[in-house]
């Protein structure tokens, strides 16, 4: 530990002077960066609109209450489409992410080049938001729920793949070594020593991603990718705030149900 001498008496100090100065410099640079970012934000913000934000929020809420319950029946099919987008998209994403995770994990990949490719796919998927994927896919395959499913799947690949390959890398090596020493094939090692260790993590990751995708699927309709977001966008464009409130209530109820279902599934599997 660093020690300095004061009147020939050794005195303990927490850090060496160079390290302490480096920490101070880091905090100073961080503070300067924060102030610079705040200035950029402030220069590009019209603060006059912020002065009556409370009044505007109160007015908007007043126009949304009470919700227009007369459209509830017509929202059931779009809501069902939203759930299907999330469910099928999640399943497709997991189907692709599962082998990618084994290729990306250091202890299961057959070759470093394959690991680099798998990691590239996982990182690329995670780098782009589902809404951006949906905008691109609507242009490519046309509007509708198919574009929404693909957007959810492409976004899920990176999420599931990353968490799963990290779980694979953290398995205990003893069962793998014991089974390998008996002359078991690579597929047998994966099936009987790797898979049992990662199965609880795989189940939890999959259900958690489905829960997230339920939320994301509700917004994809804003760019034409199907689901209840289409009705919400139409209601906003028509300034039908009572209908917007009804859509919000249905989305909120769907999220609550998905939370309950995911909690039950995780408890049952894990």
Automatic annotation (TrEMBL):
Query: Which terms does the record give in the GO molecular function aspect?
Result: ABC-type phosphonate transporter activity
Mainly resides where?
Answer: membrane
Q: Where in the cell is it found?
A: Cell membrane
Listed Gene3D superfamilies = MetI-like
Q: Which UniProt keywords apply?
A: Cell membrane, Membrane, Transmembrane, Transmembrane helix, Transport
Keyword Nucleotide-binding tagged: no
Tell me which domain of life the UniProt entry assigns to the organism this sequence originates from: Bacteria
Pfam families, alphabetically? BPD_transp_1
Where is the ABC transmembrane type-1 domain positioned along the sequence?
79-262
Mind telling me which SUPFAM superfamilies this protein's record contains? MetI-like
In the record, the note on similarity to other proteins reads: Belongs to the binding-protein-dependent transport system permease family.
List the protein's name: Phosphonate ABC transporter, permease protein PhnE
């Amino acid at each position: 530990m660093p020690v300095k001498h004061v009147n020939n008496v050794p005195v303990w100090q927490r850090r060496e002077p160079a390290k302490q100065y480096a920490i101070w410099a880091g905090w100073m640079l961080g503070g300067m960066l924060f102030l610079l970012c705040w200035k950029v934000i402030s220069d590009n913000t019209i603060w006059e609109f912020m002065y009556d934000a409370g009044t505007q929020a109160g007015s908007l809420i007043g126009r949304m209450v009470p919700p227009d319950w007369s459209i509830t029946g017509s929202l059931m099919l779009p809501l069902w489409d939203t759930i299907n987008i999330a469910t099928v998209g999640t399943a497709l994403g997991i189907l692709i992410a599962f082998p990618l995770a084994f290729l990306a994990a250091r202890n299961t990949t057959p070759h470093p080049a394959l690991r680099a490719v798998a990691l590239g796919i996982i990182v690329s998927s995670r780098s782009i938001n589902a809404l951006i994927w949906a905008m691109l896919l609507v242009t490519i395959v046309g509007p509708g729920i198919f574009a929404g499913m693909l957007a959810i799947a492409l976004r899920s690949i990176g999420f599931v793949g990353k968490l799963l390959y990290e779980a694979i890398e953290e398995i205990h090596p003893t069962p793998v070594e014991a089974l390998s020493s008996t002359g078991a094939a690579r597929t047998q090692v994966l099936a009987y020593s790797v898979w049992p260790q990662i199965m609880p993590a795989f189940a939890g990751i999959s259900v958690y991603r489905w829960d997230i995708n339920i939320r994301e699927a509700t917004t994809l309709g804003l760019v034409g990718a199907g689901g209840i977001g289409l009705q919400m966008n139409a209601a906003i464009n028509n300034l039908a705030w009572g209908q917007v409130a009804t859509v919000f209530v249905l989305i909120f109820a769907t999220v609550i149900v998905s939370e309950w279902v995911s909690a039950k599934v995780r408890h049952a599997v894990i």
